[in-house]
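During the no-cost extension, the postdoctoral fellow (Dr. R.K.) reprocessed legacy sequence entries with the updated structure-token encoder. One reprocessed record is reproduced below for audit purposes.
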Amino acid sequence: MKKSMTWKIILIILVIGFSIFMFYPPKEKIRLGLDLKGGIHLVLQVITDDAIKIQTDQNIAQLKSLLNESSIKFEKISRKDINKFELSGIAYEDEGNIKDILDDYFRDWNYTFSTSRVTLTIRPNIEMQMRDQSVNQALETIRNRIDEYGVSEPVIQKELLSEDRLLIQLPGIDDPGRVKDLIKSTAMLTYHEVVSGPFPSEEEALKEYNNALPEDFIILREKLSRSERKTEKDFYVLNNRVIVSGNDIKNARRGTDDYGGPAVSFSLNSKGTKQLEKYSAANIGKKMAIVLDERVIIVATIQTTLSYDNRITGGFTAEYVDDLVLKLRSGALPAPLKPLFERTIGPSLGADSIRKGITAAATGLILVMLFMLFYYKAAGINSIVALTLNIVILMGVLAYFKATLTLPGIAGIILTIGMAVDANVLIFERIKEDLRLGKSPKSALDSGFKKAFVTIFDANLTTIIAAIFLFQFGTGPIKGFSVTLIIGIAASMFTAVFVSRVIFDLVYAKKKKLQKLSI
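Re-encoded structure tokens follow.
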């Protein structure tokens, strides 16, 4: 055997062996997509306007605190838009001091003075950065929550050509409702002073203030009802000023309450600890509320100075506590999420898709093999071997790159079968054409492979370019189709051209003078 033939055979054995090693057993090595495994497909929009609004409200609170510390009198500070607020009722002689405060602490804001007031607006470039940052932060927060929940092989990314939309695909989910709540919950935890309450309704709470709630107050409802409570009074009036926020939480874990029930234990960082110690020490005997996503989850009377370690109790279920701990550990979303598209696929539907996809691929493969045997006789066996190896290589490469197999991906495999056979058909027809022209079988083999190679290469290259664009600009299912198509076409170039030629050479190597080809 020639040395050139030896290394060709070794190369084929190595490629096939590596491919089999990579994808066997297929149930463990081949990653299944959402449409085959079942799960959740979500497209969510980050409401970036709310992120700007939250930032504006925080700056309003900061300015109030700075003005009070400097003993500068003012009438009120009110938000005029999501990115604009106004300080009114200021004295002319205080304008210089106010300007100094704004220059030191509000460099991201443009401001203009007019008679007894100053208007602040976020700089346009800073607003754009805040919007981009809120989307990126939302993406990272969701990814942290999903990772802690334990979903395998999730797809969490920005939707293509969209600045504020997120694409989330979670295969193999048993409890879709719980996971969707986990993803979409803002998880904004804050401590507030309780001004009054509880009240049976929001209307009753407003009556206490003659239906004109002060600007710094908010009315929120309690999230969970307690079985031991005798009255259904759920509404509280709270001071809108945040004592401590969820951003100051350093660690959260499941704990127990005084009766051994599930509770949330968490620790604060140095900043949060200092703020809570200062407030609680000055407000012994007063009520304080912990608010999560604009719902009161616990109201307690401050009996001693609160510090580093804290606990949230309230007759919670173990599942609720686990989810709350997970949310607090992963951090709050910077803005609410709006569902734009939602689809839940059951595992039985995915299993049915796999069964039908495999049946379609197997049927197509068998029919193609029968045709090649009928039309090209013994040469058809050559194409069948090449076709089988093509599928083996395709599955091995999918497993190696940890690509996800989807239902459109199975369609890509079926199309690859046709593309691979097409390459063999081109080669065989070239060989038959040269045989009809009177060339010897060996010469017809040589020229047939050489002439067909250029055509095969051009056709496959243009298809790969189209598939690359599909992968670049397509969504999940389209990407799955393009991935299998690209890999399958590349594999067919190896099997149809290289492997087929080696098979011909091996079969006819011992015949010094080849008289006839079975084609």
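The domain at 188-318 is CATH 3.30.1360.200 (Gyrase A; domain 2). Residues 441-473 form the longest helix (33 residues). The remaining legacy entries will be reprocessed before the final report is submitted.
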